[in-house]
């Protein structure tokens, strides 16, 4: 009887390890699961950011890693490229691991960039960056939607974990973009005061 309990304990432990490993592989984007079972949709944003830099410059800085050469250390790998559409793999730091996503990126210069999720930690995601020129420079508006499967479990994960992590990563990237764009605009203005 003791051997049976030991065998059941070992099997339960193995099952738990497989479940935890599968969850980690899903979260890292190394395993893609798109079943459509009980999918819930979760709004991302809106996030609005005022950038004291010309709209063309901000758009160029967003699109450069995709349409030009990715800067050193960029976590972007362009897989396929056309003038207005790029397929790229992204690595994003989340806690103790990196999540890998593959996305189709559409460009409408100089006003809009749309990311459509192809593979990664979630089965569905669309993100949009809209750039409007104004007197102070550029107003950037971010919005999107992420879809997660598995009924109540997906709803809870989307609401309390995925959405928060996703928006935190976007905010970090947008803050970095704002800083770099405003620095570049100041340097350009200092060189050409007229």
As a percent range, the share of strand residues is 35-45%
Low-confidence stretches: none
Order of helices and strands: HEHEEEEEEH
Q: What's the alpha carbon Rg, rounded to whole Å?
A: 21 Å
How would a textbook summarize the main sheet? 7 strands, antiparallel
Whole-number count of domains? 2
Quaternary structure: single chain
CATH superfamily of the largest domain, please?
START domain
CATH topology of the largest domain, which one? Alpha-D-Glucose-1,6-Bisphosphate, Chain A, domain 4
Shape: elongated
Helix percentage range? 40-55%
Give the strand tally. 7
Instruction: Briefly note the structural class of the backbone.
Output: alpha+beta
Helix count? 3
The first-level CATH class of the largest domain is given as Alpha Beta
What is the correct CATH architecture of the largest domain? 2-Layer Sandwich
- Termini separation comes to 89 Å
